[in-house]
Design brief:
Length: 416
């Protein structure tokens, strides 16, 4: 039996309602969801009961006991360990004696850790080799240095989160290998849905039990996640044909518009730029209305320490972006501090001056920045083209993304 059909039947046995849709491979997009027949707008096509989700509430005592300590591992890290234990008997050496006892108890009571129990789901997940090609966190540092600025900043945040989780998990499981953990961590990163477990509402406030010490803390948005079977087949689109709704008992996905038979059904992962999609998911879109480019690397060198202090005081230091329509207001603010007197600049910041008479000079500074940026892009593209054949996928991703950025800069320059 095809692994995707086997997984579909596995999901249905766990209470999923899969209505007039199926998993299907699409050229250039990988696996996705296809309509089996014409489907009208506002029709429920998938319902996933909470009992089928993997969340922080379903993490085994094996993991919770093993990770007790002064440092708190993230829910992301917990779910990564949960996946590993569900998927393998290899992680048997547990550092703490309490955790070892919990593991023995869990095995004797069959506490959800039957390897075959989740095998149909795990069989359809991306392989580690796919992540090694598409996810920049797996790339050598020489390739990571060629990422666009926004992707690089996101990568650095990922690396810090991963390192913290890995440090905690590897101390609890001495036989855990880094690549094994990295693979599980990336599965959680790329395939979870936003979700607050019902248990966090019971006391009337959203809280999270500290997995490493039993303490309570406010549930951070990054900790609101769930692995959601079958739903994770849906690909992303800025113009989706379906939408997710969370009810008090289930995840529901319904059509937004009429869908024809054999058409791919998509959802939106959010209004994300291509640099975000590249760093977080390992792909990006050919046409993305939410795309933008970070200009910080070209603006910060123009600022002196006093100007940076003023910008920080008013909340305008950093995150200067350009999209397909215009530069953001933050960029308008920072460019004006380069030549306006402080009183006039503050008038613009406070909305007392619309800045219209200063716009030509501001535009000229921006033009110079974009021209310099484009010149650097040509050098980056040359460096990418010189990479060896071992990195063909990475070369294609990087080259295509930098060309997109160059086209966006050129389109802005062409408006003047």
């Amino acid at each position: 039996m095809d692994i995707h059909q086997e997984f579909t039947e596995w999901a249905q046995r766990r209470g999923l309602e899969i209505i007039d849709i199926k998993a299907q491979e699409f050229h250039g997009r990988g696996m996705g969801i296809m309509a089996r027949k014409n489907v009208q707008a506002k029709t429920i096509i998938l319902r996933v009961p909470y009992s089928a989700l993997r969340t922080q509430d379903t993490v085994s005592p094996i993991i919770l006991e093993a990770l007790k300590g002064p440092q708190r591992i993230s829910v992301h890290g917990l779910l990564a360990m949960d996946h590993i234990l569900l998927n393998s008997q290899a992680i048997t050496t547990i550092t703490t004696t309490v955790a070892a006892a919990a593991c023995t108890l869990a095995k004797s009571t069959n506490n959800g850790y039957d390897n075959d129990n989740y095998k149909p789901w795990h069989d359809v997940l991306p392989k580690f080799s796919e992540f090694q090609e598409s996810m920049s966190i797996c790339w050598p540092s020489s390739l990571q240095e060629l990422l666009p600025p926004m992707s690089k900043a996101l990568l650095q945040k990922q690396q810090k989160k991963l390192q913290k989780d890995w440090n905690i998990a590897s101390k609890a499981w001495s036989s855990l290998t880094y690549n094994n953990y990295l693979y599980a961590w990336l599965l959680i990163n790329t395939r979870t849905f936003y979700f607050i477990p019902p248990s966090k509402y019971r006391s009337g406030s959203i809280q999270s039990n500290n997995a490493t010490g039993g303490r309570c803390s406010i549930l951070h948005r990054d900790d609101c996640m769930a692995l959601n079977p079958f739903s994770d087949y849906f690909n992303h689109s800025p113009s989706p044909s379906a939408a997710v709704k969370i009810t008090n008992r289930a995840f529901e996905i319904s059509t937004i518009r009429d869908v024809k038979a054999n058409e791919e059904l998509t959802i939106s992962y959010g209004n994300h730029s291509n640099d975000f999609l590249l760093a977080e998911y390992g792909f990006f879109l050919d046409d993305n209305p939410w795309d933008e480019v970070l200009l910080d690397d070209y603006i910060f060198p123009l600022l002196n320490s006093s100007q940076k202090e003023q910008l920080e005081c008013f909340g305008f230091l950093g995150n200067y972006v350009l999209d397909r329509n215009s530069v953001c207001h933050r960029t308008q603010v920072v460019l004006r501090i380069l030549y306006l007197s402080l009183p006039r600049w503050e008038s613009f910041v406070k909305g007392l001056d619309d800045g219209e008479k200063d716009q030509p000079r501001t535009d000229q500074i921006l033009r110079d920045i974009l021209i310099r940026f484009r010149q650097d892009i040509q050098k980056i593209l040359e460096e990418i083209s010189s990479l060896g054949s071992d990195f063909s996928t990475q070369k294609a991703l990087l080259g295509k993304r930098w060309i997109q950025i160059d086209n966006l800069l050129r389109a802005t320059l062409d408006k003047w």
